[in-house]
Design goal:
Blueprint: H1 2-20, H2 31-48, H3 51-63, H4 72-92, H5 98-102, H6 108-111, H7 114-118, H8 120-135, H9 143-188, H10 195-249, H11 254-262, H12 273-281
Helix pairs in contact: 2-9, 3-9, 4-10, 4-11, 8-9, 8-10, 9-10, 10-11
Length: about 280
């Protein structure tokens, strides 16, 4: 929502300033310039991006419209889920977690927490972290490198679409110049004719430069940065899971293990220690 508000605000202010100076809105938008710029932008995206990355560009850009991916309530739900899971493992041994870890889609525990259950990456990350411990294949102190490898891969996968968006954004001013040059080529053929038509043709050519710079710094660049923040938020969510899982695997009580995860959170998302303890101890 805030992304839409920001874009509308930027465009509105630019148009308002232009019209206040005596300009007409139609003079800023010419179909030929828009087609040239749009074609170069889309073509560049297709050339530089594998299909997987291209899908990521689309999904992450659309994801910015939803706002922050996680709220304080989402983290509270996560901590409740992890606490119940760890409590189960504490009472019945790690083997008691097998049915939930091996079949997370059918887990009655995970289904109690819809936000977490719907997050495929988070569920997979949690279960992949616990499986080697449940199976007894590794020792608890060997778990952290495994989870770090998964986090690294997820970070790289998220960053690739952001890097592509930044590259396209950096290219837009140059594309604007290309569109302007094409307009000037057309204008040169009109020299010697009606002065008004020549002036109008030059103005149309210059809008290519304007639109390229505006798209770069006013639209694409900010969206890429918002995608970057979204990626950090998702990684922080996974890092919270990692901290809790590793602490529990190393023998910490469920409440303390979740407390470790709480301390990894940013201030606006982090419940207080007292809030966490009250929330967990009142779980039914």
């Amino acid at each position: 929502m805030f992304v839409i508000i920001g874009i509308v605000f930027i465009i509105g202010c630019v148009i308002a300033g232009f019209t206040m100076a005596g300009g007409r809105v139609g003079e800023l938008f010419h179909a030929s310039e828009l087609i040239s710029l749009g074609g170069m932008m889309i073509g560049t995206l297709i050339i530089m991006s594998p299909i997987k990355v291209l899908k990521g560009v689309i999904s992450q850009s659309l994801g910015t419209l939803k706002g922050a991916p996680y709220s304080k309530a989402d983290y509270e739900e996560l901590m409740k889920c992890l606490y119940e899971l760890f409590l189960m493992g504490r009472r019945g041994g790690m083997i008691a977690l097998e049915e939930h870890v091996m079949n997370p889609e059918g887990s009655s525990l995970f289904k109690k927490y819809p936000k977490f259950h719907a997050d495929h990456h988070a569920i997979e990350f949690l279960c992949d972290g616990l499986k080697p411990i449940v199976d007894g294949r590794i020792k608890p102190d060997q778990l952290e490198p495994l989870m770090d490898c998964t986090l690294h891969v997820m970070h790289e996968e998220h960053h690739a679409p952001v890097a592509v968006l930044n590259k396209v954004g950096d290219s837009m001013p140059a594309f604007g110049i290309v569109a302007a040059v094409l307009g000037i080529v057309i204008t040169m053929g009109k020299i010697g004719g009606d002065t008004a038509k020549v002036g109008g043709s030059i103005a149309a050519a210059l809008t290519g430069t304007f639109l390229g710079i505006f798209a770069s710094y006013g639209i694409i660049g900010p969206i890429a940065m918002n995608c970057e923040f979204g990626g950090h938020a998702h990684l922080n969510y996974l890092k919270c899971i990692k901290a809790c899982v590793i602490s529990f695997a190393n023998g910490m009580p469920p409440l303390v293990a979740v407390e470790v995860g709480r301390r990894t959170l940013e201030g606006d998302l982090r419940p207080s220690s007292a809030e966490l303890e009250t929330m967990l101890k009142t779980l039914k």
